[in-house]
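Course exercise 7: structure representation. Students receive a sequence record and must write out the corresponding structure in token form. The form below is the worked example handed out in class, using Amino acid permease (494 residues). Read each field label carefully; the graders check that inputs and outputs are placed in the correct fields and that the protein name is recorded exactly as given.

STUDENT ID: A-19
EXERCISE PROTEIN: Amino acid permease
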Amino acid sequence: MHGETTGALRRDAIGLREVLFQSVTAMAPAAAVAASIPSGAAFAGGSLPLAVLIALVACLFTASCVAELARELPAAGSVATYAARGLHPSVGFLVGWAYVFVEMLVPPLLLLQLGFTAAGTLHEEWSSYPADLWWPWSMAGAAVIAVAGYLGVRASARFGTVLGVFEILVFLVFAALLIGKAGSANTLSVFGTSHTADGYAGFGGVFAGSVYTVLAFSGFEAAAPLAEETRDPRRTMHRAVLGAALGIGLFYVLTTYAMTVYFGPDRFAKFGASGEASWDGVARASFGLFWVLVFLAVVNSTIANANACANVSTRTAYALARVRVLPRLLATLHPSHRSPVAGIAVQTVVAVAAVLGLGFAYDPVTAFLLLATVIVTVVMGVYIVVNLACAGYFLRTRRAAFRPVRHLLFPVLGIAAFVPALLTAAGLPAFDFVTELTAPVSYAGPVVGVWMAAGVVVLLLLIRRHPERIAETARVHLEEYAPADRRQDGTVPG
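STUDENT ANSWER:
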């Protein structure tokens, strides 16, 4: 493999469809519907559809902020560039440092889920298959993702599009079947507060369910790091980020409604991610072999999500390595595919090491929960900073384009939505429905703390020795896309 450390990512390689599904698959819609969203049922009960709808509205505030910044600052650095321009380059570096770290951990997270889901299902169907033989499936998934990434953004994004379409179609068909079979049991009362779980009456239960549901929306910003490889990136990024958040949010509302009215709102508090009271259990009990499609859709979702987040981590690492705040090696591009091959190699090594190391040190499910806690905690924090960056950018740099609702109210509301989600993900008992984390999942906090402390040390060294590199985190490299009325640095003359 021969690479080069100069030049740019492939321009105009993909369009709106591929970029949209980059964000869609990063949200892992099938896995979220089957495994993540049901966690809110323990609090919201049969009012979970209302909790999902509230979470959708809340997430749209932050999605709007990301979309506004993606249109203004189309850069592979994405959230790092937004924070650098909206707040300060040092903040941008720390955001990038955190974002690369957690996005590199998403593929191993999903590969663990792929492994234990495939092994568990095969063991359930054929008892002779060992339930603990999960790792070959994880390794096969890692190989597929590495090959897709190596072949370049066009191949990787189109692969993600196909996977995304499949998982969405399976659950839409299933939702239609559930609504049809529910018949007269269909009711809009699930969008009220009358079906919450015992002990969580009224809006309190809905709020608790909504906080857990917000976590299913993470990933809507994943289109942004592909800006430099996208046609008409300013327009396309804006549409992709908002379109993914809104479209998949409505998909969550529809599928949750369908299962709630079919299963029964007043007993939905017992619904979960596994067993008879789950999407898989209902499919097995009432829809024959349709459970196979549900299983394939969830497996498909893990691969698609891992593929999308590998794109995110390698592009963000490339952007930071390009300005030499990360090792220059990570900016190495394949001469023909223009893919960040060194970053892909590092991503693959990290994925394999994390999957096998943590999976065998504990077990794949525990390793999954540990990684998920690290990832969600950091991502929620990044969203909060990006909301602040949106307000800062338009107040300080683009005052002529400032809109009070879009650029101040929405960021404030976005922060209000994600602070409870951050506290919940970290297991900090700010609310009575938050469960304190136990070992080894509780190690997530120290892991994040150590990584960010290391980032601060690196930042201080760079400020002392190479301050110009930190300033470069604010640079938008797609200068050829800048309108004629803007300077090269993105500001408006006059």
